[in-house]
Queue: 2 jobs
Job 1
Amino acid sequence: MSLVAEGLACGRGGHALAADIAIALAPGQGLLLRGPNGAGKSTLLLTLAGLLPPLAGSIRYAGHDAEAGPALHYCGHRNGVRARLGVAQTLDFWAGLNGRTGLSIAAALEEVGLAGAAGLDAGYLSAGQQRRLALARLLVTRRPLWLLDEPSAALDTAGQALLARLLADHLARNGLAVIATHDAIAVPDLSVLTLGEAA
Amino acid sequence: MSLVAEGLACGRGGHALAADIAIALAPGQGLLLRGPNGAGKSTLLLTLAGLLPPLAGSIRYAGHDAEAGPALHYCGHRNGVRARLGVAQTLDFWAGLNGRTGLSIAAALEEVGLAGAAGLDAGYLSAGQQRRLALARLLVTRRPLWLLDEPSAALDTAGQALLARLLADHLARNGLAVIATHDAIAVPDLSVLTLGEAA
Amino acid sequence: MNGFSGILRRELRLALAGGGDMLTLVLFFVITGALVPFAVGPDRELLARIAPGIVWIAAFLAMLMGLDRLLRPDREDGTLALYRLADLPLSAILAAKVIVHWLTSALPLILAAPFLALILGMDPQTFWRTLLSLLLGTPALAAFGTFGAAVTVAIRRGGLLAPILIAPLCVPVLIFGVGAISPLGGPDQAGAALLLLAALSLMACALSPFAAAFAIDWGEE
Amino acid sequence: MNGFSGILRRELRLALAGGGDMLTLVLFFVITGALVPFAVGPDRELLARIAPGIVWIAAFLAMLMGLDRLLRPDREDGTLALYRLADLPLSAILAAKVIVHWLTSALPLILAAPFLALILGMDPQTFWRTLLSLLLGTPALAAFGTFGAAVTVAIRRGGLLAPILIAPLCVPVLIFGVGAISPLGGPDQAGAALLLLAALSLMACALSPFAAAFAIDWGEE
Amino acid sequence: MTIDTTPKMRWWDRLAHPGQFLAWTGYLVWPLIILTALLFALGLYFAFFNSPADYQMGDTVRIMYVHVPSAWLSQFVYGAMAVSALGTLVWRHPMADVSMKAAAPLGAAFTAMALFTGSMWGRPTWGTFWEWDGRMTSTLVLLFIYLGIIALWRAFDDQLRAARVIAVFTLVGAVNVPIIKFSVDWWSTLHQPASVFRADGPTMPPSLLIPLFIMFFAFTFLFITLQVVTMRTEVRRRRVITLERKAARETGA
Ligand code: HEM
Ligand SMILES: Nc1ncnc2c1ncn2[C@@H]1O[C@H](COP(=O)(O)OP(=O)(O)OP(=O)(O)O)[C@@H](O)[C@H]1O
Ligand SMILES: Nc1ncnc2c1ncn2[C@@H]1O[C@H](COP(=O)(O)OP(=O)(O)OP(=O)(O)O)[C@@H](O)[C@H]1O
Ligand SMILES: [Mg+2]
Ligand SMILES: [Mg+2]
């Protein structure tokens, strides 16, 4: 699958934050979004995810079979992790809802280093662990495009390495990714789009 | 005034995050708290402020006249700024509540660079401006000890310089300060306490 | 369907594990009903006469009060945004929510109703009719309520707003619900009211997931 | 005293500027009351008889429903923690809150009461007595309510909990409130009820700020 | 301003330290259970075989042996809870928290039992399950208060904070319960003729009084037994939670 956006403008409440954005991502390519606070990175991701309407321009997912379900995973600031549900239960819920097309629950938890916490109440997890659980959600259902908003927030050094590994794997499997972040991400060959330079 | 804490243990829900902390601050001294996420920096500040009970140990404010009101200002993650109240109104409210023993409202707003926004609804302020408003609250009521939790969060470069200037002024006037932060603070001669090194 | 039952399971699990929400709601229902005698006096005859109305109003208010916990927590922790990207269509997810809302707020009330009926001195026959009318009518309340929650979920402090918006829409449910119990027009009228109530519930349950999905898609972010 | 009046000013400003909260509450009051005729049938005599009770219950519920916005926003934006470090003692701040709660949720209801009285067909004399008893009784509700809000402020999703906790404690207010209106025991009893109501209000207003301050100091963080 | 919280171990601290508590109450549970069972056996024997049927109420009078003790306990348990609340607030004792938490459902159960047996009794004696009589009404309100406290316990995630807040609420409730009782009495005597449906305590013949007293003790010991068992469970539950949280903290990140 590939992603092509042309003349895209995005913003909140009718006010454009970033305009005339052109994005073209081929399979296996990743894009870093950079820019100061309030430049509109998160807004652009939401627009790409289809959660916000674009103010102008078009977004196309070429070569994606609409029958196969949504083309993308969005992983935002909020992890969608609820206290009083178990860790494995939470993941199982998302797998059931999105389709079990990826790793098994146990394998995904193993992958993000939460195997030992599978039976715990997800509310007891620290912020970093919750973020790992949110990443595991991307693994249990395979979707070609990942939209990640500050994925490294709350992750410690080991977590950052994990994130880079997951991303590299995903791209190697011909996936796409758009990542908004202030941190460095240790994945080679990411292209960069900087928003709000003029501002 | 001086602050002496001995054998202090602080934590949440009966579980100690940091134990056996000794702090001794003489007038004019500042202390930086450092440590990884979840080390208990914010918890220690809340304990020093008396908002959380200490799990063990004692805290003494020597040479403070209890009649003159609370000895300290606490400035946490949340700014206590409410939409639909004006900027000057907000500051005036806090001055009235805590006592007008410091700068006038106008002077304090001038000091933090919000003089132009005095009449605005405080909800329209950006995160950095809200933080400046929270700092202005420390100026309108004079109190010897400042407890600041990540004061530089959301501040841009000019804001950081402002913060350093305010702190240096406060210390020069024989004030005390304890600051939890991940950033560098451009104030000379701050002592450093690092929490959670073992963890 | 895997996802659908997954949502049902998750929500039921949360409701049962979770913080006494169901207990709070049932208490609200019973307390509201039990306050009435203090307000109108402990006159047995009067109480028995207005008892069906009281039970219905208390159930009505309790179900409206439970709306706030239906979608808001999901929005606040980011789950709602993910629902919009799920394999299952949003309307199916909201249909599951309607069912769950009925199971976790209407069913406990119906189970607690005998207690309220007892202290209000309802006679057994009226009581069974009340139960029947609650069973047939509350699905409509759940459906309308889910729609109201969807409309107000984007508003930060919308706590009381959904009840206010939905209450006028639900007046017909109340009218037919009470009409099915105390048949001023005789048993014929009561039967007609029951039928209308059931029709209302069916229609509301069938349509409200779509309306709610629209409201969320258009109102979010 | 400067700080005290500052709080009053701030809260009133927020309530007046703020997002139709007061309107929502008044609507809740009127709608709750107006639902009753639908539920018990349009029997004028019956309605007139239970009207004072309905007005009281509607006011009671509306005041309880308004509790959630009393302290929770302050907690969420960090103001409550700062209150605990203010020069003014926390109990004084909470006393100001009691006053504000009365002004922003009881007073609007009292002003809207004539409308409800009209719908329910209350006679003028009963209406004036209802108004008087509301005036004397609602301060106690405001005081108890503030205490309930303080007890539940530390709970993230405590919306309905404060009403549940406080309603049983407020039963005496309801009893004396209605007792002051429809004096089945003759005017003597009504006078006694009014006196007891006033005493209850005074006592509650005097003590609740301290109890609420305790609850906050002990439960926060 | 000085905050000093150096722990001072007094004998009751040691006795009621959670670990110690588990140890010494371990020896107490079975004797308590046996004593309660004996009292019940004795009381029920008297109640069913060795006391006369009432000349008016017939055999239904035997409900009294359950009804009156549970009605009595419904109030006693609130008293126990209020004392525990003082323990929480004044001495900040963790076992007081646990005791407060354990007592709430027990109190609710006894109150519900009083209501249930009362209405079972009311049906044959005055022809209806429920009457808005002062005593019954205030018992009902007491049940609501108990249930509210249970809901409050369940809503808090952090049980230490919960204990302190609930202690304040329990004490305010303790001030309020007499006021509620007074107002309800005022209300029901105002609105309806006093219903003369119950025998006056002192005029009861000894043949009724003796089994009643035995049942009093049986119920009180039942409460004490259940209280101790629930407290033990709660202490263990808290340990498990602490361990779980620690495990979560240590699984990295
Ligand atoms: C749901 C209904 C009822 C409730 C909630 C209720 C509640 C109570 C309460 C709170 C007490 C006081 C215990 C004490 O002060 O230590 C009590 C005592 C008693 N009740 Fe009931 N009761 C109910 C129905 C009845 C009925 C129907 C009868 C008999 C026909 C009855 C007979 C008694 C007697 C004989 C006593 C003990 C004597 C006394 O303390 O005066 N109760 N009940
Ligand atoms: N829910 C919202 N409704 C309206 N405006 C919003 C909302 N969220 C953010 N904004 C505004 O949109 C602008 C851009 O926000 P956005 O979150 O896209 O920035 P960002 O580039 O992601 O910044 P950051 O680096 O802080 O994440 C900001 O000025 C913000 O005030
Ligand atoms: N309100 C709370 N209730 C219970 N536990 C909490 C609460 N807030 C934080 N914690 C826990 O206390 C621990 C320490 O938190 P604290 O905020 O003191 O860390 P910190 O050193 O300030 O970290 P950071 O650098 O992220 O600010 C964390 O493990 C957290 O999970
Ligand atoms: Mg962003
Ligand atoms: Mg911190």
Job 2
Amino acid sequence: MIPTIPTPRALRVIWTGYVALFFVYLVLPLAVVAVFAFNDSQFPSLPWQGFTLDWFFGKTAPKIGVFHERSILGAIATSAIVGACVAVLSVAVGTSNAFLFNRYKFRGRGVLYVLMLLPLVVPGIVLGISILVFSSTVANGLWDTAKIDAVFLRPGLVLVVLGQFSFITTIATLVISARLQKFDQSLEEAALNLGANRLTAVRTITIPFLMPAIVGAGVVAFLMSFENFNTTLMLVGSDAPLTIAMFDRLKEGSTPLLNAVSLLLMLGSSLLALTLIAFQKRS
Amino acid sequence: MTSAPDLECTALTRRFGETLAVDDVSFSVPAGSFFSILGPSGCGKTTIMRMIAGFLEPTSGDIAIKGRSVLDVPPNKRPVNMVFQHLALFPMMNIEGNIGYGLRRAGMSKADIARKVDEVLERIGLPGIGKRKVDELSGGQRQRIAIARCMVLEPDVLLLDEPLGALDLKLRERMKIELKSLQAAFDTTFVYITHDQSEALVMSDRIAVMNKGRFEQVGTGQDLYYRPETSFVASFVGDSNRWRGTVERVEGGTAQLRTDTGLTMRAAAKGGAAKGAAVDIFVRPEAIRIGRDAADLAQFDNQLSGTVGSLLFNGAASRIIVTSDETGGELEVTLPQSGEFADLTRGAPIHIGWSAAQANCFAAGEG
Amino acid sequence: MTSAPDLECTALTRRFGETLAVDDVSFSVPAGSFFSILGPSGCGKTTIMRMIAGFLEPTSGDIAIKGRSVLDVPPNKRPVNMVFQHLALFPMMNIEGNIGYGLRRAGMSKADIARKVDEVLERIGLPGIGKRKVDELSGGQRQRIAIARCMVLEPDVLLLDEPLGALDLKLRERMKIELKSLQAAFDTTFVYITHDQSEALVMSDRIAVMNKGRFEQVGTGQDLYYRPETSFVASFVGDSNRWRGTVERVEGGTAQLRTDTGLTMRAAAKGGAAKGAAVDIFVRPEAIRIGRDAADLAQFDNQLSGTVGSLLFNGAASRIIVTSDETGGELEVTLPQSGEFADLTRGAPIHIGWSAAQANCFAAGEG
Amino acid sequence: DTLRLLTWGGYAPDNVIAKFEEETGHKVEVTMSNNEEMIAKLRATGGGGFDLAQPSQDRIEGPQKEFGIYKPLDMSQIKTELFTPSMLEATKKNSTVDGEIYAVPHIWGTSGLIVNTAEADGVKDYTDLCDPSLEGKVSYRLKRPTLIGFAFSMGLDPFEAYGDEAAYTEIMEQVEQKLIECKPVVKTYWSGGDELLNLVRSGEVVAAMAWDTGGWKLNSDNADINFVAPTSGALGWIDTFVLPAKGKSDQAAYDYINFVMQPEIAAMITESAGNFTASKGADEFASDELKAQYQGSFPAEAVDNIKWYPPVPAGLEAIEGGILDRVKAAQ
Amino acid sequence: MAASARLGFILLLMPLLLWLTLLIIIPHVDMLMLSLRERVGVGEYETSIANYKTVLTEPLYMRTFMRTAVMSILATLITLLIAFPVSYYIAKMVRGRARSVLFLLCLIPFWVSELVRTFGWMILLRETGVISQFLQWSGLVSGPVEMLYNDAAIMTGLVYTSMLFMVVPLVTTLDSLDDAVIEAGYDLGGSGWSVMREIVIPHAVPGIVSGCIVVFMLSLGNYLTPTMLGGKDSLWFTEMIYSQFIVRFNWELGAAFGFMLLFASSFIIWAMLRLTGQTLERTMG
Ligand SMILES: Nc1ncnc2c1ncn2[C@@H]1O[C@H](COP(=O)(O)OP(=O)(O)OP(=O)(O)O)[C@@H](O)[C@H]1O
Ligand SMILES: Nc1ncnc2c1ncn2[C@@H]1O[C@H](COP(=O)(O)OP(=O)(O)OP(=O)(O)O)[C@@H](O)[C@H]1O
Ligand SMILES: NCCCCNCCCN
Ligand SMILES: [Mg+2]
Ligand SMILES: [Mg+2]
């Protein structure tokens, strides 16, 4: 049960075996995705046709590798841009929210807090359509009344960013709030007491304290944006982020090209996560 | 008086909604002295300190430093600094960064800051630790850094809010003595708040005992301990045997009392202890003498025979609990340090006595 | 002896990898007594207790309860119960649920459980709080519930692992006395561990002083305080002035010493203090007498004149620091409770003396 | 300028795009889609977000009337001489709304059957896909062409009923019955052309309703597999060029149309998409193999039997949608 | 000072209000209004509850709706059952480095998108896929087996995708249970099972609830897993929303569907919170 309590050996063995199986279950799908990126076949499946790097570096059809596939590279860039925008926006608003809820007691705070949590329990697709409906209403209204064509209110990257931002901000707020709650406010008072004004105190003391959470929230926001599908699906316009582009491809049939992209994604996010862990350890 | 006191509070009052946290408190602290405010949790100590530091506005009253009112001065401009209860050292900076923080805010040059920081580290006996991180220091060292961080700004008054609260017992004992000598070294006015009477007694020049937002008594440690003026002070400062009782007779400064438990005794009447009044009576365990024979104690105004109920051996601070034969009431009595009664056993008959002057009685309070 | 002791540990040893946490410890606790293990943090106290409770297996040695070895008995079947340092009350149950937990596990009927729970709540002076939640109780009340939860199971031995550690000072003082009377009321064997000497001294029938996995001395509080057998016990139990020194001469049980600071003194030689040996010397502050005149102290083996360095007023426990005229070394001396020297001022000349019997010296340890 | 092109998979191969960019200096962004999603996207954007789209010719009049998502073509910008006249005329006719022309043809082809004759020799018509002996080895799309195809092979004429919602509903309900009955035989409903090809190539699927071009591609690898025109007739479609209402680079769009209709370029597209184009003379450049496959699948009577889609009137899609959902949900 | 505090308050309040009103509240209100609109002709609309009537009277929609809800609840329960022993193992049975390594391992699958994870399952489960081939190779089956395109495949995928969101809150709450409390349970005579039932599980309730809420939400709102792994056999509610919006151009009905989904998820989450006496702030915040 816990190491200090004598437990029957059999139970211990069964339990450990179960956990081992669980990890096999976790790893298996990713492992096959990774492995078949190197299969020299048009279809990510057995039999093994031999090892190839064509799905990464191939230049000629049908085996055009990721690094020569313009549309995939473009989609990665789009995803990165969207992710960066979402990360910056949601961390900024999240930090502001964290300060608001942590520092001020005001009427309606409870209601606002629950409202702030709500995007977490709204299905992503509903978030997507509600934003799509609203922005279309506004855009159509502008067009009908003033013949103004508000392009940014039509499906496209702006809406994708807003749609993802609408729920990722909640997560950023929670992550940053959690750390701000651990902040000892007397540190700020100490700074005031030592001659800093309010803004300087926040800048020199509170923000450095929050930094690990801010960076953490930023990375999490970026990753979540990068892999978001449901909300994006409803809001995407002419330039699709990677998940949507891959989904469109997948509808056209699986090819090891998708395995190759997936493998790169795994490597990318592992790298990001490791950097994050290293950063958190350091501070 | 020629020079104004370093700190002077006049009729200071602060409300939080219904709560009257600080209630018409006035005091002044002469330059270079160590002033403590002693009181139980929630009595308003921190509130006073935060008003002085500028984090709270008084509801009414005035705060003057070196004779000039500071009410309109924002906290970052007041010539007072504060050592916080949990020290509030900045964990994201090293020691140098912490001590230099105030100097940087004042716009001092880098070189000057470095020099000053080294100087003050020297002064607190921790030279060369400037590059260390806060969490690489021991509790006592942090304590000193927190003080140095303030002292480097040369404040007129240093405020300390229970700075020893977080330390363990043995370290706290040591730091009491060290704090006092740091104050002497810096020669600055210290205003110290605590709920631990022994801290206040050991370190302070003067102590204010605070209760429910008001100062009950201000004086030296001896004043408070030997000459408490209120029932609260008598009970809060030092240990006492305590009874509720009524006055049966008053004669000069001495009252004849009967406790609710049935004991009769003579005590020094403080305040208006009129006949028939309900009073609180306090007798310190060390004020009670023990004898094997009633005759040994003939000189005392109050005498009692009983049996030893419990032996609370605690080295030099050993006590016994004496159960009165007459009423069954219990009294704590300190054993003499001489070890004369070390051989007492549970259930042994014993006689005790104490003088009326050592028993204080006050009009009964609610405390 | 006719009846086996309630608890007997024989050559108990426990290693954690390289660390020898408990090193060949043997002791026995007679039925109905209060046994304490006193030692600094990390000395192995908790390890002993967890072996007794069954949460750790001894590397070697035996544990017997009422004469029967319990090594093969799992923790939930051992006739001992434990009060954990942070109490470990079940926050998901109310008080009744907590106290009744063990009884439910034993399969007792609902009605009987309810009756027993009421009974024990009565006994610990908290009748009628069965329906409350754990977090609606004060620290002291929780303490008592934690004990009641165990006592309702009528264990042969109750183990207590620093149960007062989390309480504040005043409450701790009160609980010391209360714990002792609870033990008397339940008449059960208590094994109590603590690093606070005053807790151990006040409550225990016998105390084992533990250091680095070993028992240094086992005895009553008086034994430890007045007759320490090792340097560690002398320094850990009670306050002392302490020097390092060398033996210049030995005469019967008395040694002539010179401290590293240059003081000479006569002390009771404990253990093998041979000529030339390095020793630790301990003198309790309350063992030193003060006089205004050197002549008043003629009867003492050791005498010294100096000046008052600091006054540490603390009511009955007031001390002064005396600076030796000769060597500049400092000694802490307790002021008599009589208040005879209450008028001393800083810098006043003073004489002090103490007898050789009150100074203990031991072969120098590392402690 | 940047040309944002909304088109089908295979219609804008990389080599063509590269060549176009090189010759005109425009940049092209390609989004792959299908009819429904093309129209949905354009509807959501009010006809913005793209500069050129390629819906089928039957999907122009209805959506334009209802949502106004296209803009009329300026025929003077289009080199009409590059088009096969009959196809140009047919498309113009079907895409004229309020006297304005909205579309010109690009690629045409048919839907029919892909059959692995070694395994499923008996499949000659759509309804043969329901043969229980093929259980777990059949696939088709769950889209409107399937409904139409099944209707024809059940002896009904859905095109006839286009104007009559009640009659159309009745036909569709019969088809629904059939498809639900057929469901246990189906392995999965495919959604993208290459997905189906993979299924057939790996042997997981032996008979399917699909586009002709896929069958020919498979035939090149495995002679057993080929496109078969169903006995009730293949369904003929023409995918077109239209200008979204709020497209911003009309010039680039016209340039693109004129560029890809050149015979050599059109042949490159045929190579990639597998289908013939409306470019006059491009067939000469097409590979002999493809021509042979086409002729193999389409004997003369089969060509005559092709059922060309008339424009879809508004409202039919709602009926079809309900049918499709019910088929999908049936257990 | 009071004035500057007030200014600060307003400055901090603005982004929150803008975000919540413009991206959450108004869009949902607008969607509600859209769902209450009926198309009566080309470009003509009027207010009515016709869309909701359609939802309630068309058995297909209700069936899909119920099916999605039931499958999501099932997926939540299965995830909980699988994750609990694992979380307990990580939180309480291993120590030190191994512990953080195991915990990190749990997170790894979630460093890639759901699409990739689902893709992995497709490669594993399909008729010519890895598992089928392995079974044939090992002689357990004689011919290829199709494991894709059925409800079991959907369940596998849903549980897989949700695992993290169950394991993390469970490990966190179990971690906060002091070992001494478990030891006290034993010390007072408890056995493994009774300690688990009376102490560990009651303590873990907040974590269980928050895990279940998130997992349920994610399953209900999932689109990729049912469409890709379920193939012909699953109509998921989100798929219907998608097809109403994208394929049918029927935004009005799609909006009504969206509201039904929102309502279902809110209701079940509310019921879950009520039943366990938790609040949203406590479990999510
Ligand atoms: N910001 C506040 N709002 C409302 N009431 C407060 C506030 N700050 C303090 N109080 C109340 O004022 C009273 C005095 O509090 P204060 O913090 O000054 O006590 P204290 O003597 O410092 O106690 P402690 O020793 O526990 O620190 C208490 O009753 C407290 O509840
Ligand atoms: N599970 C363990 N693994 C390794 N070393 C341990 C373990 N438990 C205890 N120790 C080591 O054994 C020694 C004794 O520890 P123990 O907890 O018994 O001390 P303690 O006297 O109870 O101290 P404290 O007063 O701080 O509670 C310490 O050095 C400790 O680091
Ligand atoms: N490979 C792309 C095939 C495109 C087919 N368009 C078909 C339209 C059918 N209505
Ligand atoms: Mg305070
Ligand atoms: Mg311990």
